Automatic annotation (TrEMBL):
This is Transcriptional regulator, MarR family. SMART domains: HTH_MARR. One of its GO terms (molecular function) is DNA-binding transcription factor activity. Residues 1-149 form the HTH marR-type domain. Gene3D superfamilies: Winged helix-like DNA-binding domain superfamily/Winged helix DNA-binding domain. GO terms for biological process: response to stress.
């Protein structure tokens, strides 16, 4: 293997793959700044994600759906919903058919905050993205999509051949 190929592989392993990991330094830094932003509004970034999701479901959704859609543990969802309920941003409603189940729904205060936060986040993201050309973004998305596809292909190839 020549030096440029070794360098490219090193860059790929140390920099590119790291950005795809939720625990990567870039994702940790982004979460830190999103948390800082949300702190001004009395919620965490994780709570914001729930609020943003609930904004799409005006009649409410079950906690298990929140957990599945946001890829978080159900117990974590319960704890975060408890915190949001103490802040009067969400309410628990009985399921219309099965009284063992509940729906989580934004309160009017929660809807107001959700709208404000989504608008603010959109404004921040627009400002950040204004530093990049559409070609930059297309290249980024193209490369990221290819990495995911080639990873999927490689894993399928390795594990379907062994079956």
């Amino acid at each position: 293997m020549n030096d440029s190929k070794i360098e490219a592989e090193h860059l790929f392993r140390k920099k590119v793959l790291d950005t795809l990991d939720n625990q990567s330094s870039i994702n940790t830094q982004m979460n830190f700044w999103f948390n800082e932003m949300m702190t001004y509004h009395g919620v965490s970034y994780s709570e914001y994600r729930i609020i943003r999701l609930l904004r799409k479901y005006q009649n409410g959704i079950e906690p298990s759906v929140i957990a599945d859609k946001l890829a978080i543990l159900r117990q974590t969802t319960t704890n975060m919903v408890d915190g949001l309920q103490k802040k009067y941003l969400v309410e628990r409603l009985p399921h219309p058919v099965d009284r063992r189940r509940i729906y989580i729904k934004l309160t009017p205060e929660g809807v107001e905050l959700a709208n404000k936060l989504v608008e603010e986040m959109s404004s921040v993201q627009s400002s950040v993205l204004s530093h990049f050309t559409s070609e930059d973004m297309e290249k980024y998305l193209d490369i990221r999509t290819k990495i995911i596809k080639y990873t999927e292909d490689e894993i399928k190839k390795r594990y379907t051949e062994e079956s």
